[in-house]
Amino acid sequence: MSPPSADQAATSSTEVSDPSGVTGKLCTWIHDTTTDNIPAEVLERAKYLILDGIACGLVAAHLPWSETAARGVFGMEPKGQCTVIGYGGKKLSPIAAAVLNSTFIQGFELDDYHSLAPLHSCALLLPALFAAAEATSTATQTFTGKDFLRAFVVGCEIGPRVGLALHGADLLTRGWHSGSVQGPSATAAAVSSLLGLCPAHIESALGMACTQAGGLMSAQFGSMAKRMQHGFASRNGLFAALIAKEGYTGIEQVYEVPYGGFLGCFAQGANYEPKALPNELVSGLGERWELHGVRVKLHAAMAALHGTIDCITNLQKEHVDLFKAENLNNIESITTQHSRPAFEHGGWTAPADKPLSSLAAQMSIQYVAAAQLVDHQVLMAQFGADKLNRPILRDIMAKTTPTHNAEFDKDKKTGWVNIATVRFKDGTEVTNRTESPRGIEPPASNEDVVTKWRMLVQDVLEVERREEIEKCVLGMDCLDDVRQLVKLLEGTVKCPITV
């Protein structure tokens, strides 16, 4: 018999290429982590985050841009074995289902985000894990709710750590869609955990996931693509783990390899020295749980805009008469102050002669300030076609000037500070400073999550189905087969806004 080729030898090992490197340590931790290693409060919080992600997917499944995506994908992909949320039992391949379901979860800017290393964990992890469970379950092997929770927590740990190794929000400042860059790693890690891959296969999965990473933040200026970019990351990480499971090899030591490595490439142009922090990938693994940094949104807009909304809300509460509807025409100017990532992400000026799309509005400091002033809320209704381009909103937007305050760039805590100053034509001027938006510090409670879930789905789901899903998710650790939950998500849902 001939000796094995280099490729054959590579696929036969179960160990990582360098156990002492950051990639090797990460792979070993992913492999070794069991449900018993994860604190009970982390597992409990994970269930509420999953409920929030499912709410976001269901409520956005039939938004106009979601339906456009669905038509395109159904038209190009054959029938498969994996559920598309809210589409009456339609199924696609695992790769295609992951893209669509992620696009739905990201469909209304209502989904979770990490407070220090921006990404949307549920939009990455839930679609890939649901697809992996449906695609690989057999008559003799299924995945329990505990298996799913463990894998979800693992993904919630890896994605933010990849971001922290690149100085958190710095990717956004440089124009990268940070979640799309960090996301393939999170998804590959989570699916690898669910499938029980060996360390060598996990290393290959991460290596193939990282070589597919990318995403341009210019997608936020009105294109539908922004809502699908986490879907690309979910798909790519899922694909990487599924093919690594078969022994297909990926880049070894992908995070630290000098030439063409993940950190080496994505750290180019960083605004910090050193440009990358490799040890952030493994620092405190199993002791400091990044899942605690996942935040639940209480406004239907990009997270960096929430501080502006809260500043305006506080001014409305403190100066009720000043901000009555009949006095809004007397506003002379509004000036807002932000950290650099928030300013670069949301501080762009909307062209006065171009109608806003829902996506552009959800990325605009000018728009959310105006919507809060006029409607006293920034939720789904504010982004319906009948709301977006009202003359009073466009007038207030034209008077609103976002600015960058370099003092807010000093550390991670001040990065969430927002200041809003409103000046009236009679010279009256009022200011509010918000240290951190609602839902950041303190985070939204589990009770807040349930309230949000019920509010979001009340008009798209019948009560009995809502209660079944809620019971299933919050009791996930007792599920014998996670496909019981997926089955509850397949029925058709309604569109929640006027289009």
TrEMBL record:
Residues 299-472 form the MmgE/PrpD C-terminal domain. Residues 1-21 are annotated as: Disordered. Gene3D superfamilies: 2-methylcitrate dehydratase PrpD. SUPFAM superfamilies: 2-methylcitrate dehydratase PrpD. Residues 25-273 form the MmgE/PrpD N-terminal domain. Pfam families: MmgE_PrpD_C (PF19305), MmgE_PrpD_N (PF03972). Residues 8-17 have a biased composition (Polar residues). It comes from the Eukaryota. Belongs to the PrpD family. This is MmgE/PrpD family protein. It comes from Exophiala sideris.
